[in-house]
Structures are given as C-alpha cells and as structure tokens.
UniProtKB/TrEMBL annotation:
SUPFAM superfamilies cross-referenced by the UniProt entry: Mitochondrial carrier
GO-annotated molecular function: transmembrane transporter activity
Residues spanning the membrane: 68-86, 107-128
Extent of the Solcar repeats: 11-92, 105-219, 228-290
Record's keyword terms, sorted: Membrane, Mitochondrion, Repeat, Transmembrane, Transmembrane helix, Transport
Lineage: Eukaryota, Metazoa, Chordata, Craniata, Vertebrata
Protein name per the record: Solute carrier family 25 member 48
Domain of life: Eukaryota
Amino acid sequence: MCCFYLKPFQSNNTIPFFLSAGASSVVVGHPLDTVKTRLQAGKNYKNTLHCILSIYRKETAMGFFKGMSFPLASITVYNSVVFGFFSNIQRLINKYRHGDERRPCSMLDLTVASMLTGLVSVGLGAPVDLVKIRLQMQTQTVLAENLHLAGHVPSGTNIPLRSMDIPSRRLYRGPVHCISSILQTEGLQGLYRGAGAMVLRDVPGYALYFIPYAIFCELLTPDASSGPHPCSIWLAGGLAGSISWVTATPADVVKSRMQADAQVQRKYRGILHCIVHSYKTEGAQAGSRQ
C-alpha cells in the first residue's frame, strides 16, 4: 500500500501570514457575509443584488457591517488557536505513529489532523458565529400581512388587504448584551445553538481545505528545502477555499438558520427539522442559498 506524503503545515511564513490576514479578511469579507446570512436565513430577497439594495436602502452602508465587532475582536485568538492546534496535532500524530514529529505527514495523517482541527474550530467559533448572525439578522423588517384596521374601517367595507414593513424591535444593543441575553434566557447551551450543523460543515470542510492547501503549496514550491512563498500561500488558500466551500454550503445554510432562530420566535426544533422544513418549503435549492 503506497502513501502520498505532504510537507507539514508548519512553515515559519504560513501561520504569521494567516494571523496578520485575519483582521483584514473580517473587514473585507463581512459585508458579503452579511448578504450571505440574509439570503440564507432571511426572507423576501429575490436574489443577491436585491438583497444588497434592500440592506443599503433600509439600513445605509452601515447595515453591511452589523455584527462585525465580535468576530473582529476574536479573530486573532481564533486563528492562533486553530492554526496552532493544526500544526501541533500534526507533530503529535507523527511522533505517535512514526516516532519522528518532523516527518512529513501522509494523506491519512493530514486528514485526521484536519478533522480534529475542525472540531476545535467549532468549540471556539460557534458562539462567535451565533452572536454575529443574531446581530446581522435583527435589523431586518418584519412583514405584517392582512393588517386589519379595526375601528377605522366601516363594517362590511371591502378594502384590499396589503402588506407593510414594520421596523423590528432591536433585541440586542451589541455583542456583550447579546451574549448576556442568551445566557439569561437559554443558558450556556444557547451560545452553541447550531453547533451540530457547524460540525457537519467544519469537520469535512477543514479536511477539504487543508488537504488541497497542502497539495497546492507543494506544487507551487519548487524548492523543497524552503517554505512556501506568501504569494503561493495566498493562491493555494484561495483555491483550497473554493473547493471546501462547495461542500460546506448546505451545512452552512442549516447552521445560519439554526443560529438566527432566536428563542422568542423559534421555528426549528433541531437540525433534522430544519433540513426537512427547508427542503419542503424551498426544495433542493435551499442548500445552495448564499
């Protein structure tokens, strides 16, 4: 049985690169993440462009940055732990299986390390994602259908019923108030609502990210004795991210809907109920909303 060996993910350039890029990625990506979250968990958006225009018209440009402060404040710690864990777990696996922690990882070793890293990322990232999504979603308007103007319309008058937008009441004043409110009403487990769907997303997702990433870095680094160039890291990361996201999107839709499902208006009883309900109401295309 042959083994395919890859260079360990422990270059001196790699981890600092991810750490320094973390804050920039949050600032640049958050507006698109807000649009993605609204499309996945919101209503009445025809398409991406309609969602963008709706947010801008009703909430101005600041609406795209709702919920950004908590991910921005925690991204350095998150990246430090996740990528540090990934490097260290590779060394531990190599030392346990082969007696040499500097030995290049095999495909199996890299897969195990990636999946374990996915579990760690859920433990850290689930509360951050939940708070972010709650803050992103609370600025939406609620749709009031069949509004009866009792006392203002004469009896028997046939007036067509219409819909109107009513600004929703803000439940949370900010990330700290959001966390405090969730802990008071739902307990600690409330911060991990949707974590099961996040496991379904991140455990295979990390494997489908790190394995292509390592392969692309190997291909883009002609000199085996040196670490990958920052440009090679950037290109490899982009290609690997595109591959992993294709499989992660359906689970991400379920995660977003579970986390946006606040207790005051709970709609889904669990992951399976969310999947079944989404499929019955929207069909298979519900898993590709982004």
